[in-house]
Amino acid sequence: MTKQFLIYIAFIIGLPLVTFAQPEPTVTPKPKPAEEPAKMPKPIAKPAEEQPAKMPKPIAKPADEPSKMPKPIATPKPSATPPAKTTTTQPAKKTTATTTKKPASGKPVAKNQPATTQFPIASNAPTTEPKKLDFPYHIYKSSATFSDLQKALKTPDRVYRLDLSRKKLKTIPPEVFKFPNLMYLNLSHNRIEYLPRDMKNLKGLIELNLSNNRIDTMPDELGDLSKLRFLNLSNNGRLYKFPVGIRGLKKLQNLDVTNTNILEFELNYVRRYLPECKLEF
To answer: What is the pTM of this model?
Structure first.
Protein backbone atom coordinates (compact mmCIF):
# COMPACT_ATOMS: atom_id res chain seq x y z
CA MET A 1 0.00 0.00 0.00
CA THR A 2 2.74 2.33 0.90
CA LYS A 3 4.79 1.52 -2.13
CA GLN A 4 2.04 2.22 -4.54
CA PHE A 5 1.29 5.49 -2.82
CA LEU A 6 4.76 6.70 -3.19
CA ILE A 7 4.82 5.80 -6.88
CA TYR A 8 1.63 7.69 -7.39
CA ILE A 9 2.91 10.81 -5.73
CA ALA A 10 6.15 10.65 -7.68
CA PHE A 11 4.24 10.32 -10.94
CA ILE A 12 2.22 13.43 -10.11
CA ILE A 13 5.14 15.47 -9.06
CA GLY A 14 7.30 14.25 -11.94
CA LEU A 15 10.09 12.66 -9.98
CA PRO A 16 11.90 9.73 -11.52
CA LEU A 17 10.94 6.45 -10.40
CA VAL A 18 13.23 4.78 -8.03
CA THR A 19 13.24 1.13 -8.00
CA PHE A 20 13.58 -0.37 -4.70
CA ALA A 21 15.06 -3.49 -6.12
CA GLN A 22 18.12 -4.98 -4.66
CA PRO A 23 21.40 -3.62 -5.95
CA GLU A 24 23.11 -5.73 -8.53
CA PRO A 25 26.62 -6.94 -7.77
CA THR A 26 29.31 -4.64 -9.23
CA VAL A 27 31.53 -6.23 -11.82
CA THR A 28 35.12 -4.86 -11.96
CA PRO A 29 36.21 -4.41 -15.58
CA LYS A 30 39.32 -6.12 -16.70
CA PRO A 31 42.24 -3.74 -17.58
CA LYS A 32 42.75 -3.39 -21.28
CA PRO A 33 46.21 -4.13 -22.58
CA ALA A 34 48.29 -0.96 -23.37
CA GLU A 35 48.15 -0.04 -26.99
CA GLU A 36 51.52 -0.16 -28.72
CA PRO A 37 52.59 3.08 -30.51
CA ALA A 38 52.27 3.07 -34.22
CA LYS A 39 55.49 2.24 -35.93
CA MET A 40 56.79 4.85 -38.38
CA PRO A 41 57.78 3.55 -41.78
CA LYS A 42 61.51 3.36 -42.35
CA PRO A 43 62.85 6.05 -44.80
CA ILE A 44 64.03 4.75 -48.09
CA ALA A 45 67.83 5.08 -48.16
CA LYS A 46 69.04 7.19 -51.07
CA PRO A 47 72.06 6.03 -52.96
CA ALA A 48 75.17 7.69 -51.57
CA GLU A 49 76.84 10.20 -53.85
CA GLU A 50 80.16 9.24 -55.20
CA GLN A 51 82.84 10.83 -53.05
CA PRO A 52 86.33 11.61 -54.37
CA ALA A 53 88.89 9.05 -53.52
CA LYS A 54 90.95 10.08 -50.56
CA MET A 55 94.70 10.32 -51.12
CA PRO A 56 96.71 8.30 -48.67
CA LYS A 57 98.56 10.41 -46.16
CA PRO A 58 102.35 10.39 -46.56
CA ILE A 59 104.13 8.51 -43.90
CA ALA A 60 106.19 11.03 -41.94
CA LYS A 61 109.72 9.94 -41.30
CA PRO A 62 111.11 10.56 -37.85
CA ALA A 63 113.22 13.73 -37.81
CA ASP A 64 115.83 12.31 -35.50
CA GLU A 65 116.90 9.53 -37.82
CA PRO A 66 119.49 10.83 -40.31
CA SER A 67 119.21 9.72 -43.88
CA LYS A 68 121.39 6.78 -44.52
CA MET A 69 123.98 7.31 -47.21
CA PRO A 70 124.54 4.45 -49.56
CA LYS A 71 127.65 2.51 -48.82
CA PRO A 72 130.40 3.01 -51.39
CA ILE A 73 131.05 0.07 -53.58
CA ALA A 74 134.40 -1.37 -52.74
CA THR A 75 136.70 -1.44 -55.71
CA PRO A 76 138.62 -4.64 -56.09
CA LYS A 77 142.27 -4.34 -55.38
CA PRO A 78 144.61 -5.07 -58.25
CA SER A 79 146.10 -8.48 -58.09
CA ALA A 80 149.81 -8.90 -57.63
CA THR A 81 150.21 -10.71 -60.91
CA PRO A 82 149.58 -8.51 -63.93
CA PRO A 83 147.11 -9.84 -66.48
CA ALA A 84 148.45 -11.48 -69.54
CA LYS A 85 148.86 -9.12 -72.45
CA THR A 86 146.87 -9.89 -75.54
CA THR A 87 148.44 -8.98 -78.80
CA THR A 88 146.06 -7.71 -81.44
CA THR A 89 146.94 -6.62 -84.89
CA GLN A 90 145.85 -3.02 -85.58
CA PRO A 91 146.12 -1.16 -88.84
CA ALA A 92 149.16 1.02 -89.14
CA LYS A 93 148.48 4.69 -88.32
CA LYS A 94 149.72 7.48 -90.45
CA THR A 95 152.48 9.36 -88.72
CA THR A 96 152.91 13.04 -89.39
CA ALA A 97 156.00 15.00 -88.50
CA THR A 98 155.30 17.40 -85.63
CA THR A 99 157.11 20.70 -85.58
CA THR A 100 157.00 23.27 -82.81
CA LYS A 101 155.92 26.62 -84.17
CA LYS A 102 156.57 29.72 -82.14
CA PRO A 103 153.59 32.09 -81.99
CA ALA A 104 153.80 35.84 -81.98
CA SER A 105 154.19 35.85 -78.19
CA GLY A 106 157.46 33.87 -78.42
CA LYS A 107 156.31 30.83 -76.38
CA PRO A 108 156.61 27.42 -78.15
CA VAL A 109 153.44 25.44 -78.68
CA ALA A 110 153.44 22.12 -76.78
CA LYS A 111 153.37 18.91 -78.75
CA ASN A 112 150.42 16.52 -78.95
CA GLN A 113 147.91 19.34 -78.43
CA PRO A 114 145.08 20.29 -80.78
CA ALA A 115 145.84 23.31 -82.86
CA THR A 116 143.90 26.40 -81.75
CA THR A 117 143.05 29.25 -84.05
CA GLN A 118 143.98 32.63 -82.68
CA PHE A 119 141.55 35.43 -83.40
CA PRO A 120 142.60 39.07 -83.30
CA ILE A 121 141.69 40.90 -80.09
CA ALA A 122 138.90 43.40 -80.61
CA SER A 123 139.78 46.97 -79.78
CA ASN A 124 137.74 50.11 -79.26
CA ALA A 125 139.38 51.79 -82.20
CA PRO A 126 137.03 52.41 -85.12
CA THR A 127 137.43 50.16 -88.11
CA THR A 128 137.00 53.03 -90.52
CA GLU A 129 139.98 55.05 -91.52
CA PRO A 130 140.40 58.38 -89.69
CA LYS A 131 139.28 61.47 -91.51
CA LYS A 132 141.95 63.52 -93.13
CA LEU A 133 142.69 66.76 -91.30
CA ASP A 134 142.27 69.98 -93.20
CA PHE A 135 145.20 71.63 -91.44
CA PRO A 136 148.89 70.73 -90.92
CA TYR A 137 148.66 68.99 -87.55
CA HIS A 138 152.42 68.47 -87.23
CA ILE A 139 152.99 72.20 -87.57
CA TYR A 140 150.26 72.96 -85.03
CA LYS A 141 151.85 70.68 -82.41
CA SER A 142 155.56 70.70 -83.23
CA SER A 143 156.23 74.33 -84.06
CA ALA A 144 158.07 76.56 -81.64
CA THR A 145 155.96 78.60 -79.23
CA PHE A 146 156.74 82.31 -79.01
CA SER A 147 156.24 84.02 -75.68
CA ASP A 148 157.88 87.37 -76.56
CA LEU A 149 155.67 89.48 -78.76
CA GLN A 150 158.49 91.73 -80.04
CA LYS A 151 160.62 88.78 -81.02
CA ALA A 152 157.72 87.13 -82.82
CA LEU A 153 157.08 90.28 -84.88
CA LYS A 154 160.47 89.84 -86.57
CA THR A 155 159.21 86.81 -88.51
CA PRO A 156 155.39 87.10 -88.48
CA ASP A 157 154.87 84.56 -91.27
CA ARG A 158 156.63 81.84 -89.25
CA VAL A 159 154.73 82.29 -86.03
CA TYR A 160 152.30 79.41 -85.51
CA ARG A 161 152.11 79.33 -81.72
CA LEU A 162 151.96 82.36 -79.44
CA ASP A 163 151.79 82.25 -75.63
CA LEU A 164 151.03 85.59 -73.92
CA SER A 165 149.74 84.15 -70.63
CA ARG A 166 150.44 85.87 -67.28
CA LYS A 167 151.38 89.18 -68.91
CA LYS A 168 148.86 91.27 -66.92
CA LEU A 169 147.14 92.29 -70.14
CA LYS A 170 143.87 94.23 -69.93
CA THR A 171 143.24 94.12 -73.66
CA ILE A 172 144.52 92.00 -76.51
CA PRO A 173 147.45 93.80 -78.18
CA PRO A 174 146.68 94.74 -81.79
CA GLU A 175 150.01 93.22 -82.88
CA VAL A 176 148.53 89.77 -82.28
CA PHE A 177 146.40 90.13 -85.41
CA LYS A 178 149.48 90.55 -87.63
CA PHE A 179 150.28 86.83 -87.63
CA PRO A 180 148.38 85.34 -90.59
CA ASN A 181 149.42 81.72 -89.88
CA LEU A 182 148.73 81.71 -86.16
CA MET A 183 147.20 78.38 -85.01
CA TYR A 184 147.58 78.48 -81.22
CA LEU A 185 146.97 81.52 -79.03
CA ASN A 186 147.18 81.45 -75.23
CA LEU A 187 145.93 84.57 -73.40
CA SER A 188 145.08 82.92 -70.07
CA HIS A 189 145.71 84.38 -66.58
CA ASN A 190 145.41 88.01 -67.61
CA ARG A 191 142.90 90.80 -66.94
CA ILE A 192 141.19 90.94 -70.32
CA GLU A 193 137.57 92.17 -70.11
CA TYR A 194 136.39 91.94 -73.73
CA LEU A 195 137.39 90.65 -77.14
CA PRO A 196 137.89 93.06 -80.05
CA ARG A 197 136.23 92.59 -83.43
CA ASP A 198 139.63 92.10 -85.04
CA MET A 199 139.48 88.50 -83.82
CA LYS A 200 137.98 87.66 -87.22
CA ASN A 201 141.43 88.22 -88.80
CA LEU A 202 142.81 85.04 -87.17
CA LYS A 203 141.34 82.78 -89.85
CA GLY A 204 143.77 79.89 -89.24
CA LEU A 205 143.32 79.76 -85.44
CA ILE A 206 142.71 76.20 -84.14
CA GLU A 207 143.02 76.64 -80.36
CA LEU A 208 142.17 79.71 -78.28
CA ASN A 209 142.73 79.81 -74.53
CA LEU A 210 141.03 82.71 -72.71
CA SER A 211 140.70 81.13 -69.28
CA ASN A 212 141.19 83.00 -65.98
CA ASN A 213 140.31 86.47 -67.26
CA ARG A 214 137.49 88.97 -66.67
CA ILE A 215 135.66 88.60 -69.96
CA ASP A 216 131.97 89.51 -69.88
CA THR A 217 131.12 90.01 -73.58
CA MET A 218 132.29 88.57 -76.87
CA PRO A 219 131.66 89.89 -80.38
CA ASP A 220 129.69 88.05 -83.06
CA GLU A 221 132.84 88.11 -85.20
CA LEU A 222 134.08 85.19 -83.06
CA GLY A 223 131.98 82.98 -85.33
CA ASP A 224 134.25 83.83 -88.28
CA LEU A 225 136.99 81.58 -86.88
CA SER A 226 135.87 78.70 -89.10
CA LYS A 227 138.83 76.42 -88.21
CA LEU A 228 138.61 76.82 -84.43
CA ARG A 229 138.38 73.45 -82.63
CA PHE A 230 139.24 74.18 -78.98
CA LEU A 231 137.89 77.16 -77.04
CA ASN A 232 138.61 77.58 -73.33
CA LEU A 233 136.54 80.21 -71.49
CA SER A 234 136.77 78.72 -67.99
CA ASN A 235 137.13 80.82 -64.82
CA ASN A 236 135.54 83.93 -66.30
CA GLY A 237 133.04 84.72 -63.57
CA ARG A 238 131.47 87.66 -65.42
CA LEU A 239 130.59 85.69 -68.53
CA TYR A 240 126.91 84.71 -68.70
CA LYS A 241 126.06 84.45 -72.39
CA PHE A 242 127.50 83.56 -75.80
CA PRO A 243 127.45 85.72 -78.88
CA VAL A 244 124.92 84.77 -81.53
CA GLY A 245 127.74 84.22 -84.00
CA ILE A 246 129.10 81.28 -82.00
CA ARG A 247 126.93 78.98 -84.08
CA GLY A 248 129.33 79.68 -86.98
CA LEU A 249 132.03 77.57 -85.28
CA LYS A 250 130.98 74.40 -87.11
CA LYS A 251 134.28 72.60 -86.45
CA LEU A 252 134.39 73.31 -82.70
CA GLN A 253 135.08 70.08 -80.82
CA ASN A 254 135.54 71.22 -77.20
CA LEU A 255 134.08 74.20 -75.34
CA ASP A 256 135.10 74.67 -71.69
CA VAL A 257 132.90 77.04 -69.64
CA THR A 258 133.57 75.72 -66.12
CA ASN A 259 133.34 78.29 -63.29
CA THR A 260 131.35 80.76 -65.36
CA ASN A 261 127.79 82.11 -65.10
CA ILE A 262 126.67 80.80 -68.47
CA LEU A 263 122.90 80.22 -68.39
CA GLU A 264 121.31 76.90 -69.25
CA PHE A 265 119.53 78.58 -72.14
CA GLU A 266 122.89 79.47 -73.67
CA LEU A 267 124.13 75.89 -73.29
CA ASN A 268 121.04 74.60 -75.08
CA TYR A 269 121.75 77.09 -77.85
CA VAL A 270 125.18 75.56 -78.38
CA ARG A 271 123.78 72.01 -78.23
CA ARG A 272 121.29 72.90 -80.93
CA TYR A 273 123.65 74.50 -83.44
CA LEU A 274 126.87 72.64 -82.54
CA PRO A 275 125.73 69.08 -81.78
CA GLU A 276 129.23 67.58 -82.23
CA CYS A 277 130.84 69.95 -79.74
CA LYS A 278 131.69 68.61 -76.26
CA LEU A 279 130.58 70.96 -73.51
CA GLU A 280 132.43 71.20 -70.20
CA PHE A 281 130.61 73.15 -67.51
So the answer is: 0.54
